[in-house]
Specification:
The complex is a heterodimer of chains A (about 140) and B (about 220). Chain A is an all-alpha fold. In chain A, about 65% of the residues lie in helices and about 0% in strands. Chain A is elongated and about 45 Å long. In chain A, about 35% of the residues are buried. Chain B is globular. Chain B has a five-stranded mixed sheet with strand order 1-3-2-4-5, sandwiched between helices. Chain B folds into two domains: about 35 residues; about 180 residues, Glutaredoxin (3-Layer(aba) Sandwich), CATH 3.40.30. Chain B is about 60% helix and about 10% strand. Chain B is an alpha+beta fold and about 220 residues long. The chains are: A mainly alpha (about 140), B alpha+beta (about 220). Chain B: InterPro entries: Thiol_disulfide_DsbA, Thioredoxin-like_fold, Thioredoxin-like_sf, Thioredoxin_domain. Chain B: Keywords: Signal. Chain B: This is Thioredoxin domain-containing protein.
């Protein structure tokens, strides 16, 4: 992994994943908002990023970027879909989680009138993917 | 080496922020609950609610229960034990929070059976056979019917009673009070109007002991 530019990019991506992971755990475990199915898909993509990128940073191994990107893209897709449901652009009967106790369309938390958890999730995934993408394009003359 | 220190420091900082925020949030919640708790005494105890213990006991434990809830079944002996532990000083009032799927039907059946048989053994039978009739958090009314039939309940009468206006009123009142008191987990316990803010056996015993001491003086 290239110092300092590539390392720093991955480090910022890792920090975002760390804050997102702890934030998600805060809202589910402390505040008690039960995650819906789509939230779980985003969590499945987000939580491992902390470990994969963290290990990559610790070992200065640029390969971690390649392992992390697919997760980040899947997470971003799930978050994007979730935001469409929140915005009402996808009708109720198409959402995959109508039967459970928690509906994906139910907005549990809203800050300043427009910041919701799926929006934060989408922003986090978008930022992580962008950073990792730029980092992956860095010249690899050093390993 | 420097990289790892930065990583470690970040993780520690993030964890510190997490637990700090958790502590802050929980203390805020406890304050809010304590502030609203005792105001709503009317919503806690209704005339229709089953009571265990002497009517003139100064300490009232209100338990919002779901017959299909496993923790309620586990907590039940402890809650009822308080009546024996503090004879004449504590009474228990049962309200319903039918949160499990199909549990409202079971509440109706229980209330209808209560018109025929003593209430507390019926509730205990439900709790003890919970694993049979409430598998995978799905309450099965047919299995409860089999249990009640075995207990000698007249099922024809029960079928008529369980959808009567009187029992409709009980179910609706309990649900309205449950929502007003924000009981969204069971068992929802209140002692003399004070909610059990931090759930646990020790915390519950301490809350009851504190209220007994306050109402009857130190023993």
């Amino acid at each position: 992994m290239q110092y300092p530019r590539q390392w720093n990019l991955v480090f910022i991506a890792w920090l975002i994943a760390l804050v997102s992971t702890l934030g998600a755990l805060f809202f589910s475990e402390i505040v008690g908002i039960e995650p819906c199915v789509l939230c779980w898909y985003q969590r499945i993509a987000m939580f491992p990023l902390v470990l994969i990128l963290g290990q990559g940073l610790a070992k200065a191994d640029a390969a971690a970027i390649r392992y992390a990107l697919p997760l980040g893209i899947i997470g971003a897709l799930a978050a994007f879909y979730h935001n469409l449901i929140y915005a009402g652009l996808i009708p109720q009967d198409l959402q995959p989680c109508g039967q459970g106790s928690t509906s994906c369309a139910q907005i549990d938390l809203q800050l300043f009138g427009f910041i919701t958890l799926p929006l934060l999730s989408l922003l986090a995934f978008a930022a992580i993917n962008t950073l990792l993408f730029i980092a992956s394009k860095a010249p690899r003359n050093e390993k | 080496m420097k990289n790892k220190s930065i990583l470690l420091a970040s993780v520690l900082l993030a964890l510190l922020a997490f637990f700090g925020a958790a502590r802050f949030y929980q203390s805020q919640q406890a304050e809010n609950m304590a502030a609203q708790g005792s105001v709503n005494s009317e919503q806690l105890v209704r005339a229709h609610a089953p009571v265990l213990g002497p009517a003139d006991a100064k300490v009232t434990i209100v338990e919002f229960t779901d017959p299909a809830c496993e923790t309620c079944a586990a907590f039940s002996p402890l809650v009822k034990g308080m009546v024996e532990q503090y004879p004449g000083q504590v009474k228990v009032v049962i309200r319903y929070a039918a949160l499990h799927h199909g549990a409202d039907q079971i509440v109706r059946m229980l209330e209808a059976a209560r018109l025929q048989k003593p209430y507390w053994p019926l509730l205990e039978t439900l709790y003890q056979n919970q694993a049979y009739w409430a598998q995978n958090h799905q309450a099965d009314a047919n299995k409860v019917a089999a249990i009640f039939m075995h207990e000698g309940v007249d099922m024809t009468r029960l079928a008529q009673d369980m959808n009567s206006p009187a029992i409709n009123a009980i179910v609706q009142q309990d649900e309205a009070d449950r929502q007003a008191l924000k009981v969204d987990m069971t068992p929802g316990l209140f002692v003399n109007g004070k909610p059990l803010t931090e759930f646990g056996v020790g915390q519950f015993k301490a809350l009851v002991a504190g209220e007994v001491a306050r109402s009857y003086g130190q023993q």
